[in-house]
Hints:
The protein is built from 14 helices and 18 strands. By secondary structure, the protein is α+β, with helices and mostly antiparallel strands. The protein has three domains: about 20-150, Dipeptide-binding Protein, domain 1; about 160-245 and about 470-495, D-Maltodextrin-Binding Protein, domain 2 (3-Layer(aba) Sandwich); about 250-465, Dipeptide-binding Protein, Domain 3 (Dipeptide-binding Protein, domain 3), CATH 3.10.105. The longest helix has 18 residues, at about 435-455.
Amino acid sequence: MFTSTMALYSVSGSIYGRGNLVMGSFTNMFQVAPALASKWSFNDDFTQWIFTIRDDVKWHDDTSFTAKDVKFWIDLILYPPDGRSVGNMYTILDDVRNVEIDRNNVVINLYKSTPMFLNKLITSPDYNIAHPHHLMKPEVDVGNVKVSPDQVNWVALGPFEMVEYEKDGLVRVEAFDSYWGRDQSNLPLPFLDGIDFPIMPDPATIVTAFRTGRLDGTAPGSGYFLTAESKALIAKTLGDQVNFVEQPHRAWEVIPNAERTPWNDVRIRKAASLWFHRQEGIKSVHGGLAELSTLWSPTSPWINDNFEKWLGYNPATRDAARARAKELLKEAGYSNGFTTTLLCRNEWLVSCGYVKNQLSGLLGQGNVELDMVDEISQVERQCRGDFDISISFQADLFPETSAERFDSINECSDVKNDPALDDYFSRLAGMRFTKPLYVHKNLSKEIELYILQEKFYKIILWYEIATQAYRQNLKDVIIPAQGGKHHLAYETAWLKPRVSA
Length: 501
């Protein structure tokens, strides 16, 4: 029995499994692989996608999974009954016109050409099919429109099934004998008999439990990934009995409001980008557990190869970058700086403090004011454009799926009213199956240069590194190239007998 601390991504990953109709490949998360659909096809203009549903998938109550379940899942997201909000997948399914069933095929018709539809489906570990039609439809029909997984005994499709939940104590899952998945040698999954997830809200308690042998792995998720200090403490205690796993998690960014004076002047935005001492922030904010990057993850194939030499990124040219930043301010008519307000979330105090201090060095002490708000307020105000500059993050796997952040018709877009970006992303989407991969990569890099080095619409600070610890006797946990919350079904993991310290 593998034991890890409780984090919703781990629990949901084990119960619901990886992906939905498709998933990121075991060996390359940037490559789409079959999941609940065994194959797919599309029409000439990518407005219709047909998925063939596997015939060996069972819900945890041994009811067969069918095309009817897929239609119910999508319809519930797009057309929720009164009293139920749209699902978190609405933003990637809002192009769906309707869903039809043809025997064991699901036919998804779209309003517009969407060559990257498969990529959209695998961008987040949250995008699971978690609504058994035979259990939830009767509940909805009698008025229980907010029916939740606990009301149907957590019946799902993943490699493990829920067997015990003790509030504030423990979540226990056990292997589902009828799980459809197999490994690369065609062996049935999962290998573990079960997993215990003790519920530990306090990160320090998690580290102590891991060090003392109660846990086989630490937790994923923001606020639970290891800090530099906790990593060093674990290493000191366990030595070669621990395996640390690190992968790029998300890009932290400063978003200037390019619709508001003076941030609508590209010279001001460029000056701010040149001024940041990114290496200092990596140390002070993350204890070194971050690295320079751009819009895309440093492990992705889309990133510009020479970005570390850009002014503002390269420590060897920092003095020149800051001198140029001051010149740009003067050229824009703000040689003495100006007052501005930084919108930031309450829980990001350290990051907010770093950005404020950096900008104060450029704009003048006392000229940068913090406006600390909750998550919902920040999102709403960014959508309305009610801010000067804001701190945010993103972790897109694919350039095409980041298009909504720059779409001129999206009222919540980070960048508004730039038709050049609409054209860029439209061309990029059309290349997915029509051009060689190197052409696609080159255009992705051109888009990145336009956003970050020509228009300076965003100031990317760094990519946070997600760090977890596993005991050395826990083998074959899938480690994704990006995003510490992906691939958490644990279906391939197995335990060797633990060696005594």
